[in-house]
Amino acid sequence: MDPALQPFLLVAVAVVMGWFAVGVVWNIRRGNAVLRWMQGGLPRLGERTTLRWLGTSVVELTIQRAKPPFRQVEILVVLTPRDVPWLWLLAAGRGRRDFLIVRGQLVTAPRLEYEVAAPRSWTGRRSVAEARLRRWSEQAEGEHLYLAPPASQAVSRSGALDLLGEAGRSFRGVWRISVRRERPQFELHLPLPNPRQADAGAYFDALRRLAQRVAAGTP
Predict the structure, then answer these.
(1) In sequence order, which residues have a C-beta less than 8 Å from that of residue 92 and are 6 or more positions away?
(2) 3-state DSSP call for residue 180?
(3) Quick one: average pLDDT of 103-113?
(4) What is the pLDDT of residue 145?
(5) pTM for the model
(6) Which long-range CB contacts under 8 A does 216-219 form with residues at least 24 apart?
(7) Rg of the Cα trace of the chain?
């Protein structure tokens, strides 16, 4: 290597390593703040929660014996990859933000299958693409698309939109609602709430109400 380039290489390495260290600390602090907030609401879903970090950008919480209408619940806190500069830039360019995924197995399996997704959101975009590969029908509903197998298109639409309306009143933004007969039977994607502004108990009560409607088949 040209000796003249060595100082520039050292500076580049220092910048990347420094960015990585700051990004790791930022995500851990952000994740821990959300987890502390969740402690006030998770008992509404179940008494015993298993927690583990998957790298520095994802926290997985699992409730094996959840309260009805859930049988089991998995919650993923997905953070922007702030520790890797090029991944952070890629995520920012695609509009990715910190978000929450709630996946649940229900005591009573849903009768119908459908998706309600915001195509401009990070996960909603992927949901729409997958539904189109399955040749599901779609219909625009404001900022969302309603997607369903042809046999369920007319039957589940009104209930799905009512469910979206209730979710919109309870949460600041809804990226995706997925209802399936198979695992996971209920899935909800939301921008991560601000722990300083949201009440954890009310937040998780709202999650249970949505799942109860799906389990009751209303949907």
Answers:
(1) 80
(2) coil
(3) 91
(4) 94
(5) 0.86
(6) 216/69, 216/108, 217/108, 217/110, 217/111, 217/112, 218/159, 218/162, 219/110, 219/111, 219/112, 219/114, 219/156, 219/159, 219/160, 219/163, 219/179
(7) 20
Length of the chain: 219
The label of the residue with tokens 């197998």 reads: 149
Model confidence at 219: pLDDT above 50: no
Per the listing, tokens 């990070």 go with 122
Domain limits, the chain: 3-216
Cβ burial 11-36 (10 Å sphere, 16+ → b, else e): eeeeeeeeeeeebbeebeebbeebbe
CA distances from 206 to 87, 101, 102 (A): 33, 14, 12
**Do residues 106 and 70 touch, judged by C-beta distance below 8 A?**
yes
Q: Residue 113 has which token pair?
A: 């299958």
Please write the tens of the pLDDT for every residue from 124-177.
988 999 999 989 989 998 999 999 988 766 667 888 899 999 999 999 889 999
| DSSP code per residue over 197-208 | TS-HHHHHHHHH
| 91-107: burial string, b at 16+ Cβ within 10 Å, e else | beeeebebbbbbbbbbb
Three-class SS state of 219: coil
CA 201 to chain centroid, in Å, comes to: 18
